[in-house]
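Sharing a chain and its predicted structure for anyone who wants a worked example. Both blocks are below, sequence first, tokens second.
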Amino acid sequence: MKIVVADSISESALATLRSQSAWQVADLGRKPLTSGHALEEEIRDADALIVRSSTKVTARLLERASRLRAIGRAGVGVDNVDLDAATKRGIVVMNTPGGNAVSVAEHTLALILALARRLPHADSLLKQGAWEKKKLLGTELRSKTLGLIGLGQVGIEVARLAQAFAMEVVAYDPYVSSLIASKQNVRLAPLNEVLTSSDFISLHASLTPETHHLLNARTLALTKPGVRIINCARGELIQEADLLKALETGHVAGAGLDVFETEPPRDLQLASHPNVIATPHIAGSTEEAQEIVGIRIAEQVRDFLLHGVARNAVNMPSLSAEEYKKLSPYLQLGEKLGAFLAQIAGERLQEVRISYDGGLAELNTHLVKNAVLKGVLNHVLSEEANLINAGALAQDRGLEVVELRSARREDFSNSLGIALRTETEVCSVLGMVGLRGSLRILGVNDINVEAPLKGLILYIRNRDVPGVIGRVGTLLGDRKVNIANFALGRDPQAAEAIGLVNVDDQIPPEVLGEIRAIPAVRVAKLVEL
């Protein structure tokens, strides 16, 4: 076996690989001027490649790697790896999520402390010869409220550190169960309550259409005067122009920012504001974090080459060609049904129930289950869920997963049903694979309604009264939103109807607001698949 290490990893990580006496380890990471040509030569007969963020693993490079079976990324992001090219060549790509959680949490707390005591300003004044104690009045952390937006691995670590300073921690994360939060002594609350009650607000959410510019003029106006904002997650979570205005008015007393919408930022107005402490995306950059991810990826590559165990694989399931051919349509169906349901269900997910019917119930559905979970979780987590890690991520989030099988269904054969239970409701969807592999929705919330499972779908739940369809159609037509399909299902007993509107264009937020304002409409959400 030959393993090429293209970027620098620790001696301990290298020792993990070299412990296999028959293995050849080509360590290019310790050669400062290693050229791309050297990597191309070494990779020709390599079985595995380990990289950090510097090396670009392109399709052209992979064409030269006829024996390559695994790529290990020492870190989380895999933007520097051509996943499509790797998948087509049957190369598993693995990463190391969570390895820098402690480092990011500690950096977050460092920013909180620096903001509370105005440390950079104090340091700068003293170095200029000014002894300005009165200008540097700080605030204690004890008894202050820290609001976390996102309670994943990093959020939990931040909560633990903050509690050591006797801070009260409240969090908004619609996809974490109350049980998980209570184990961390964290109180879950709606977003508005977190915004209005917190003295410090720290962002630890994943970037989704819902969280993009989560902090903006409207939400910042809800915060306490004198609030301090910390962001070590994703720059796009904050509308930077709105934060700058809030800093200039004094409503926001300070901000600690490790991430920016554009990196490096071209406009330095925000980063250079006197009440902003800015760092260049270094929250996860510590010796310990690099040591951890190096050792983890070395162990993962070793275990894959020795035993075929792919931990934290991001691009492919382990299936025989025959199994994959049978299951492939249902993997797509499960993922899209899960994504659909995650976008229409309420908050505080507690249980995912999956029902297999007909011939599907007789197959090995482990990967179908993971495809469903992947569809659900990728709308709520910062970690990327895939067919390998979805089950573990669901368990970490306190989600109960239940599977049911029925050899025969009277109305539809080979159908797949999913139900999500939250603290307040149960939402369900039924789907199937149609002719030529087309994916179809057959029903939502036990109401029969059939529609294509693809693209943009406007989901509407309304009282079953006249005029709703016409009003929705008019609103969409007036804004030049083309309707590809309009499906309606009814429950006469409950006097409730469900509409699924496949559209060709994005629906502007103001139009969605007008649809929600129709008196008979109870819910209107745009689902993106």
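Comments welcome. The CA atoms of residues 132 and 308 lie 63 Å apart.
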